[in-house]
Amino acid sequence: MATKKSSPDDLLAPVTLAVGQEDLLLDRAVREVVAAARAADADTDVRDLGPEQLQPGALAELTSPSLFAERKVLVVRNAQDLSADTIKEIKAYIDAPAEEISLVLLHAGGAKGKGLLDAARKAGAREVACPKTTKPAERLTFVRQEFRTLGRSATPEACQALVDAIGSDLRELASAAAQLTADVDGTIDEAVVGRYYTGRAEASSFTVADRAVEGRAAEALEALRWSLSTGVAPVLITSALAQGVRAIGKLSSARGGRPADLARELGMPPWKIDRVRQQMRGWTPDGVAVALRAVAEADAGVKGGGDDPEYALEKAVVTIARAARMRRA
Fold first, then answer.
1. pTM value?
2. Residue 188 contacts by C-beta under 8 Å, 6 or more apart in sequence?
């Protein structure tokens, strides 16, 4: 009876249990086992099965000794949806797994099919967590780990910029990290990410706003011109500027506290609280008022109240950057 828990590093463990709903991580768990099996035996037979393909009796046939004694990898997807009879067969199998066979069970977690989860864990299955990433901080951690896994150094600002630019899709984030690693020498910084991904309107708009509220006028103007040259609508930039300045004003007038408490009070995610705290150094109440007026004027300018929307935006960016330095001045 297999009661000894398999090591997380043992990719050829008799049973691997991948638990969660993040497709990228589930697929990676499968690929790692398959790669390890084929490294041990290039002729490894891989079977990728869904619940509809694993009917009662099928497991016994798939795990029966082969005439050629070949290694096998059996991948069972959506294991929580297996029939009661098939689950019973798998429970019996994992207590006495066959040699040269790696069984990979992909389970969504949760209450459905929990008996199979419990049985696999009790039998000592190697377990891989594949949770769905729902929070920005989790995606940021994922990006940092991607660069570490790829053996590259990326600044915290670069990782955050990549998350801001790409969004919540882990496959796209992983692809972007791999592309940057392949194309760029040395440390990957925020400027590098900007060159590759500022074509995304939301990301480039918020880059302008971030540099402006940090008092970095030259960089904000450079980001502004790049955004406009790549077709970002001026109204998106004024919106980002407004959000950036309002966040400074909200946090500066809020009572002190933990990021989680302030996040609930102000309606911001905790990671945003930490970023705004860094950005608000140098700001005064008068500076916030000046910046809000500048945003209002720019908004009117880009919506038909002026002859030159680009000039209106440049003027607002410079005014906001100066307002950010009032206390330092």
1. 0.59
2. 147, 152, 153, 154, 155, 158, 180, 181
